[in-house]
């Protein structure tokens, strides 16, 4: 994927979704397009027709060589993403619908975690991003949709760094305790945070997302404003409740054929895709309980349950159909008479006019999913209530419940509560029914699907804003309970942590503010301060030049502290002369601004000043370093050459802690470690669960640190808070 140029100022829109706005079928060797009737297509097609742009998605069949599905008559460009049968099985049925779907719907026991599915999911997401890269240069916005493509924004951001990217999730976003079950949770969060705007149906999902971002990635969030500071950018997360094409459903209900006769039976309607999240078995048990608790409804009430076939090739769905068939048979067998059966079960797809007539003529709509991102059936029912209004019974676990407050809301797992809600709906007087339905209809007419598109696109154009500077209150929320009355052992990297990164290490100087704060910390009786750097020990000691500190150089191969014996790793001396030889060998890649910094036991090859692509030089330098028997470790625009002796900053920190406090050091002190690059990740991993660790800088790389700090100013704020906190035990 090629790098991006400046973002287009045009109004073209690029849409990425798992499926194209039509389904492609092969009939007698020819491809035929069948328009999709889904809500997403109805929402986005008018915007694409008006603005122009591109729709990227899977056509539903594997295209053969030379086959094309686009037409010059199309009002916008259509780009198919081809998937093999294996990829459909692992990316779509496997990871998307076998892992993410149940987990995000709070049904973790149904989720399968298969690394092969994950690898295919990532591969397909990269392919979607590659397909969108060219269109991103021409589009005002690239809008990625749903859980199938949560990694695509990350790969697209790498290809088109100036593009405006947005994402909308059409299913729930789970709470932290569920999301953390996913082995690849950090990767998905990083994928979404490549966007400028991330949208969800309701605010509860937004808060779940922000919670996961803060706890899993350590990113700074502003919950009130829905902002995340990540990757050197500020990402906006917001709630955009999806609506329906209200006028279309209303008009269809008005024109749909009227029933030939109005029987005495009252109709409770259920309309669902056959899916275990929809709560159909619980609904049937609710009707059974209604007939037990309120015998007056026997012979006079019918549950008309329409189940649209879905994913019949998946065993979980076949098992669900078998369970529903058995429940229907049991309830009908228990209560049916010669002239009446309590359940009419339709396992089929019905045309729109038949569906809207069913909505219109129902007395009660029973919309009780176990979990749902929004649930448009509830809204469709409301739009079709053009005559004597019925009553909506709605699961409080559906996203729609946050706005459809006039519905009778129930916990779908509470069978008795559902039964009583049905009874109340069936016996509700007309005045209350009209009042409730009138309010619902006014809101859904106003907040229709077209308003949803406009609202989201308007928000995508708005300036994201900035997070407020780090405050003492925020820092205190991170550290106060952790530190309690313990002593503090503070470890600080130097370059990029205490000083900004500069073009040459010799220019990296402490600010007066940070120097004074560290000096104040060092004088506290309850705090020890250590500077741990990749620089040579003498170099870092000279730069900081403060008494009472522990200094560790060469990534901890050499340590000096006022209260500890000097430490030199016993194996490091064997590599001292080889560093000199390595420096000479690296002369051949010291061109175009690259240079070598010998540091005694280690060495750093810098390429920060190299103009253009330094990839070839970097790979050559790596080969020289590794060929000389050293480990090559990435740093900021540099390669660190380290002796292969199993020592790093993490082990050095543990050495200092054990030397100072003994093997029981976790009971004596609380550790804080602050660093900014790959070499500090060793310490983050070693200290996992035993320290508060901070990764400094805007890098999007995944980190083992618990939290992120944006820059040196944020580090200064944390140090200032530590210096001002009450003395432990005082």
3D architecture notes:
- With 730 residues, the protein is of the alpha/beta class.
- The strands form five sheets. The chain has a nine-stranded mixed β-sheet with strand order 5-4-1-6-7-8-11-10-9, sandwiched between helices.
- The longest helix is centred in the first third of the chain and has 24 residues.
Topology overview:
Blueprint: E1 13-19, E2 22-27, E3 30-35, H1 39-51, E4 53-58, E5 77-80, H2 85-104, H3 115-138, E6 141-145, H4 152-159, E7 165-168, H5 176-179, H6 185-192, E8 197-200, H7 203-217, E9 220-222, E10 227-230, E11 233-239, H8 246-255, E12 266-273, H9 280-293, E13 301-308, H10 315-335, E14 343-347, H11 352-361, E15 364-367, H12 376-383, E16 391-395, E17 408-410, H13 415-427, H14 430-446, H15 449-461, H16 472-483, E18 487-492, H17 512-523, E19 527-532, H18 537-544, E20 550-553, E21 558-561, E22 564-568, H19 576-585, E23 595-598, E24 603-606, H20 615-627, E25 631-635, E26 638-642, H21 649-661, E27 669-675, H22 678-686, E28 691-696, E29 707-709, H23 712-724
Parallel strand pairs: 1-4, 1-6, 4-5, 6-7, 7-8, 8-11, 12-13, 12-15, 13-14, 15-16, 16-17, 18-19, 18-27, 19-20, 27-28, 28-29
Antiparallel strand pairs: 2-3, 9-10, 10-11, 20-21, 21-22, 23-24, 24-26, 25-26
Helix pairs in contact: 1-15, 2-3, 3-4, 6-7, 8-11, 9-10, 9-13, 17-23, 21-22
Would you kindly provide a brief summary of this structure?
The chain is an alpha/beta fold and 730 residues long.
């Amino acid at each position: 994927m090629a790098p991006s140029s400046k973002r287009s100022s045009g109004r073209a829109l690029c849409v990425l979704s798992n499926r194209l706005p039509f389904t492609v079928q092969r009939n007698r060797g020819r491809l035929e397009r069948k328009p999709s009737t889904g809500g997403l297509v109805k929402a986005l097609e008018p915007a694409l027709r008006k603005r122009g742009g591109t729709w990227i998605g899977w056509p539903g069949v594997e295209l053969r060589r030379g086959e094309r599905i686009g037409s010059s008559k199309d009002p916008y460009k259509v780009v198919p993403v081809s998937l093999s049968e294996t990829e459909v099985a692992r990316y779509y049925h496997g990871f998307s619908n076998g892992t993410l779907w149940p987990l995000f719907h709070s049904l973790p026991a149904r989720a399968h975690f298969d690394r092969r599915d994950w690898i295919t999911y990532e591969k397909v997401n990269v392919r979607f991003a590659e397909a969108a890269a060219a269109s991103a240069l021409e589009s005002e916005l690239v809008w990625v949709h749903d859980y199938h493509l949560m990694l695509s924004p990350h790969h697209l951001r790498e290809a088109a760094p100036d593009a405006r990217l947005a994402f909308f999730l059409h299913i729930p976003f789970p709470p932290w305790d569920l999301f953390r079950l996913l082995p690849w949770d950090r990767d998905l969060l990083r994928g979404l945070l490549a966007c400028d705007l991330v949208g969800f149906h309701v605010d509860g999902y937004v808060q779940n997302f922000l919670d996961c971002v803060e706890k899993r990635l350590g990113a700074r969030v502003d919950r009130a404003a829905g902002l995340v500071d990540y990757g050197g950018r500020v990402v906006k997360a917001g709630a955009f409740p999806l609506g329906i094409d209200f006028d279309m459903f209303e008009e269809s209900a008005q024109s749909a054929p009227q029933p030939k006769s109005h029987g005495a039976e009252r109709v409770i309607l259920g309309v669902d895709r056959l899916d275990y999240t929809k709560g159909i078995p619980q609904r049937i048990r609710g009707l059974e309980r209604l007939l037990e608790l309120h015998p007056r409804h026997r012979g006079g009430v019918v549950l008309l349950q329409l189940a649209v076939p879905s994913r019949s090739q998946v065993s979980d769905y076949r098992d669900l159909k078998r369970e529903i068939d058995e429940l229907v048979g049991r309830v009908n067998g228990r209560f049916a008479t010669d002239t009446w059966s309590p359940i009419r079960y339709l396992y089929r797809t019905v045309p729109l006019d038949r569906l809207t007539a069913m909505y219109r003529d129902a007395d009660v709509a029973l919309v009780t999913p176990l979990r749902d991102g929004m649930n448009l059936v509830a809204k469709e029912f409301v739009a079709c209530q053009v005559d004597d209004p019925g009553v909506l019974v709605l699961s409080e676990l559906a996203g729609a419940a946050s706005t459809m407050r006039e519905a009778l809301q129930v916990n779908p797992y509470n069978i008795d509560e559902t039964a009583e809600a049905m009874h109340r709906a069936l016996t509700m007087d007309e005045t209350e029914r009209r009042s409730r339905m009138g309010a619902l209809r006014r809101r859904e007419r106003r907040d229709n699907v077209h308003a949803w598109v406009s609202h989201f696109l308007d928000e995508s154009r708005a300036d994201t804003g900035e997070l407020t500077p780090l405050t003492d209150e925020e820092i205190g929320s991170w550290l106060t309970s952790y530190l309690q009355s313990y002593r503090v052992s503070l470890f600080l990297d130097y370059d990029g942590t205490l000083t900004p990164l500069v073009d040459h290490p010799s220019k990296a100087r402490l600010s007066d503010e940070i120097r004074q704060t560290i000096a104040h910390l060092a004088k506290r009786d309850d705090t020890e301060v250590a500077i741990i750097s990749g620089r040579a020990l003498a170099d870092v000691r000279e730069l900081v030049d403060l008494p009472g500190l522990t200094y560790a150089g060469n990534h901890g191969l050499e340590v000096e502290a006022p209260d500890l014996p000097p430490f030199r790793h016993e194996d490091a001396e064997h590599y001292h002369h080889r560093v000199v030889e390595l420096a000479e060998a690296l002369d051949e890649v010291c061109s175009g601004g690259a240079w070598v910094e010998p540091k005694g036991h280690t060495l750093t090859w810098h390429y920060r000043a190299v103009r253009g692509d330094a990839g070839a030089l970097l790979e050559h330098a790596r080969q020289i370093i590794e060929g000389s028997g050293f480990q090559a470790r990435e740093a900021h625009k540099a390669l660190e050459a380290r002796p292969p002796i199993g020592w790093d900053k993490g082990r050095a920190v543990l050495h200092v802690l054990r030397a100072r406090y003994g093997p029981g050091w976790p009971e004596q002190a609380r550790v804080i470690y602050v660093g900014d690059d790959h070499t500090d990740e060793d310490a983050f991993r070693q200290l996992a669960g035993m320290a508060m660790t901070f990764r400094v800088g805007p890098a999007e790389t995944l980190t083992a640190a618990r939290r992120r700090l944006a820059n040196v100013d944020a580090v200064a704020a944390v140090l200032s808070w530590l210096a001002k906190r009450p003395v432990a035990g005082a």
